[in-house]
Design goal:
heterodimer, A: 402 residues, alpha/beta, Rossmann fold, seven-stranded mixed beta sheet, 13 helices, elongated, B: 232 residues, 34% helix, globular, binds guanosine-5'-triphosphate, binds magnesium ion
């Protein structure tokens, strides 16, 4: 069993990656994903494993420099850390490594070196720094055939295979093979993107050994955790650390914001003050393995300073409406404008659906001129109806990248 | 205040305006002053239009670019400048990253370049609240020396899409006379317009295609120091 060393992933995978299995990090362009492979290399080395790193998009010295940036000293492991240099020949530079690919644009050359290493070395962790570069240089079909072959050798020789793959717009066929078929496990690494990418998350898309390990896991709440995604940051030094997103609850005066926040909260609600005038209610939610910090304001006039304050950090917005009070929708519209300008994902809560005069979500959508892509969720916050559905939908919107 | 401008009056007047979300190819021969034109767009974008500028350089180290502005007494507002240096490591120099400079592994490492572009965009857009940003890539020709056309196309496909989505402006420099027409035409599909430069008998001309009903006329220009002097 190989631990990836990435927070939560080993837990999600039932302890780590079994010998002979393969895993791909399926990384959206623009998201810092190659650190996943690096962190796994370092974790492996620390747990006395032999590690091979295939360097395709930069020279081995730069790779070593990257470890140093994270504060990971790999020199002490040099007798069991091997770099396959599949880069220097590209730029006609000499190589100091033991394993050198003479023509990285030829899949047979590359494959031969990798398979030599697999045959020679004891059961190892084999990490491909950039599978996409190999596809780019050697061709999609050729590379996919080679991967099948490497993964077969891995089973024979008990190696564990890890691939970093950037999801450039390759052919659908290639992407399907990578996502659905070639590897035992797929972890999507994506960005929370509206206009720009402003948060990063990973998400276990699938793993074919987890069913068995789930049975053997005594942890009873495992089955409840259907959502296996986490938001992360990359720190230098330090590597991947998890972080909790901030979600804003806003809306017109008396719409039910405080009620909504209390209903979602899994812990007690506290009140922060900004200066002397602005009070912010805050609480923490844990739901289906996903956690968030919620921030609620009072009334609507204070929204602008607060969203300004939190915009670099917040990940999404709930806009709460009193469905029975269309006069207030005009305020809601203003708030929406501001939210949109900050590029934050948001959903609309049509609260107080229990009241006779309440407009339906569809009527509200029309009133506000909202497009079909904006969810309008019916809710009765005071009876906790619709609120967890709403939370789940916002989280899906936040992490809907891949 | 305009969203985006070329910083060359006659050109700005000759097109219907550079609206948000446009991707433009800047193509011309070597020694025609393309770089100066690009630096001018960078300067006017950052100063007059108060835009964020993200510059990907594969030709000159970031520090050289910043020196050029200093030498010509052009004061860049540094809080809106981000340079992604893809060449320093290849040259074996030991320049380091700072608030304005990010260094990538190599021009082959499009994944790494993409990450740094996203990081600057995020920083400008979300953290600094700069809503208008320009991405300049100088140059696609170098990227094409290290990666094949499909690879560069895929990269550009993603990032021209992001430019559109973010309401930014993208300027992508290409050296003419270095690539197959077929390759250039493949890339052209990704762009809304072209700034075209030609040299005839030692005289340089510039025009813009695709941003007005008809191509603009060819304008004669000369480079004087950091200035672009438009002829008649
Ligand atoms: N009928 C009904 N009443 C609700 C519902 N949710 C909240 N309320 C009531 O609406 C009133 C306002 O609720 P709050 O949660 O205090 O509203 P708020 O948006 O926080 O108000 P301010 O902070 O003052 O802007 C309270 O009397 C709640 O009991 C609901 O779903 N149905
Ligand atoms: Mg309240």
């Amino acid at each position: 069993m190989l631990e990836t060393g990435i927070p939560k992933i080993d837990e999600f995978l039932g302890g780590g990656i079994p010998d002979g299995k393969s895993l791909v990090y399926y990384i959206q362009p623009g998201v810092e994903g190659e650190v996943f492979g690096l962190q796994t290399v370092y974790t492996s080395l620390k747990s006395a494993k032999t590690v091979v790193y295939v360097a395709s998009s930069t020279c081995p010295d730069n790779i070593k420099g990257q470890f140093a940036q994270f504060g990971w000293d790999i020199d002490i492991f040099k007798d069991r850390f091997f770099l396959v240099d599949a880069y220097n020949s590209l730029i006609r530079a000499p190589s100091k490594e033991k394993y050198v690919v003479s023509n990285p644009e030829n899949i047979e050359d590359l494959s031969k070196i990798i398979i030599d290493a697999m045959k020679e070395l004891p059961p190892s962790t084999i990490v491909f720094g950039s599978l996409s570069t190999i596809l780019d240089l050697c061709g999609e079909k050729e590379t996919i055939e080679a991967i099948r072959n490497w993964n077969k050798y891995a089973i024979l020789h008990d190696h564990t295979m890890i691939y970093n793959f950037t999801v450039w717009p390759y052919s659908q066929e290639t992407l399907d093979s990578i996502k659905k078929e070639l590897f035992n496990a797929v972890i999507a690494v994506g960005g929370i993107a509206d206009r720009v990418i402003f948060g990063q998350y990973y998400w276990i898309l699938r793993s074919d050994w987890i069913k068995e390990s789930r049975k053997s896991m005594l942890k009873s709440d495992w089955t409840k955790e259907s959502r296996k995604s986490m938001l992360f940051r990359v720190s230098r030094p330090g590597g991947i650390t998890l972080f909790i997103p901030k979600i804003l609850i806003t809306g017109a005066f008396f719409a039910g914001k405080s009620t909504f926040l209390h209903a979602l909260s899994t812990q007690s609600v506290s009140v922060d003050r900004i200066g002397t005038t602005i009070a912010i209610e805050r609480c923490h939610v844990e739901y289906k393995g996903f956690s968030a910090d919620l921030f609620g304001t009072s009334g609507q006039e204070r929204f602008t300073p607060i969203i300004k304050l939190l915009s670099g950090e917040s990940m999404g917005v709930f806009l709460i409406l009193d469905s029975s009070n269309p006069q207030d929708f005009i305020h809601a519209k203003e708030i929406l404008q501001i939210t949109k300008s900050y590029g934050l994902p948001y959903i609309v809560i049509a609260n107080k659906q229990d009241l006779q005069e309440a407009l339906t979500p569809e009527e509200i959508r029309k009133h506000l001129g909202l497009g079909k892509d904006i969810p309008v969720i019916p809710a009765v916050a005071k009876d906790k109806i619709g609120i967890f559905e709403a939370f789940e939908i916002l989280i899906d919107k936040i992490t809907g990248g891949i | 205040m305009n969203d985006y401008t070329f910083g060359i009056k006659v050109l700005d007047n000759a097109v219907d305006g550079l609206t948000k979300g446009k991707n433009i190819m800047l193509i011309g021969p070597s020694m025609s002053g393309k770089e100066i034109i690009l630096y001018n767009m960078m300067y006017y974008g950052a100063t007059t239009n108060e835009n964020g500028i993200i510059m990907v350089t594969t030709r000159e180290p970031a520090t050289h670019i910043l020196d050029w502005f200093k030498e010509h007494n052009l004061n860049l507002p540094m809080s809106r400048i981000g340079i992604i240096d893809c060449i320093t490591k290849t040259l074996g120099s030991n320049d380091v990253e700072n608030d304005n400079i990010k260094i990538t592994n190599s021009p082959v490492d499009l994944t790494g370049i993409g990450v740094k572009i996203s990081q600057f965009l995020d920083e400008f857009y979300m953290k600094k609240n700069i809503r208008k940003n320009q991405l300049h890539i100088n140059s696609l020709s170098t990227l094409l020396m290290y990666s094949n056309i499909q690879t560069v196309f895929r990269f550009l496909h993603v990032f021209t899409g992001r430019i559109k989505g973010a309401g930014a402006l993208g300027i992508f420099v290409l050296e003419s006379g270095m690539h197959d027409d077929k390759d250039i035409n493949t890339l052209k599909q990704l762009f809304d317009g072209i700034i075209e430069i030609k040299s005839e008998n030692d005289r340089n001309f510039i025009r813009v295609i695709g941003l007005s009903q008809k191509p603009t006329p060819w304008f004669h220009y000369e480079i004087e120091g950091s200035n672009i002097k438009m002829g008649e």
